[in-house]
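Task card 7
Instruction: Convert sequence to structure tokens.
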Amino acid sequence: MTSPVASLADAASSGDRAALAKLLTVVETGGEPAREALAALAVRAGDHAAIVGVTGAPGAGKSTLTDRLVAQLRAGGERVAVLAVDPTSPFSGGAILGDRVRMQDHDTDEGVFVRSMASRGELGGLSRAAPHAVRVLDAAGFAWVIVETVGVGQVEVAIAGTADTTVVVVTPGWGDAIQASKAGLLEIGDVFVVNKADRGGVESTVRDLEGMLALGASSSADTGETPAWLPPIIPTVAVEGRGVEDLVDAVRAHRRHLEDTGGLAARREQRIRDELRGILLERCAKHVDAICSGIPFGTVVRRVADGELDPYNAAAELVGDQQ
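Output:
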């Protein structure tokens, strides 16, 4: 007899939007039902969708740009899913649905599916369940999956491990060269967007980015490595839709480059490695919690405090007790 979760997976893969929404909730909640859902989708999810990450500092216009990207892709008849990772509500623990509000124009479009997901305190700009949700959306048959992160700062660059193409959105006057390098965004960006290009300072921002990217290319050349892809810089005015077509062209060009060089397969294999590593770490954390909640733990703590045992041997002893 087919389980309820497996039935949801079948329905979601057949285009049932309500079932897809429920299945994403199952995956986000985690636990045994989530594992069952991902197992049921394993034969359907084959990395068919083009996965595009949109990231950048708060206020850069990521949501508006994503909305325009969706409209541009839909004009070509392609089905698009958006996974918008929002800040977590301090009251409900769920997503603050800012991005869903901005994308209401697509609510009646059967070719667009928008899902908000709370970051739940994760520092990488994504929620822990985001890679699993992408897998679900891929299995549901969308040609494009756009993942928009929460506003990122210096270390929140996890999107690079989830997307095929990472779009970094900045604005005129965006920091200085040191801050940009510190943010790590230069390293993860495949396409750079200078949004709000109707403001002053666009030319200097583009020049700064070009200089920093050229410096990175020179560093690679010094080591004997020729960079295969130099990220383009696209000025846009997202609220007016200006430059969005150029952005779509740049994303498509990057995807063709990855396919031609074998980079797409390499990125997706690394993504699976990262996903498995995360699952293993989660399982290990549960074992650690079990050890720390056991009676021997308190005894060992007291022995370390009394100087009878050092912390490393104490940990080894606890693991031995657990086994």
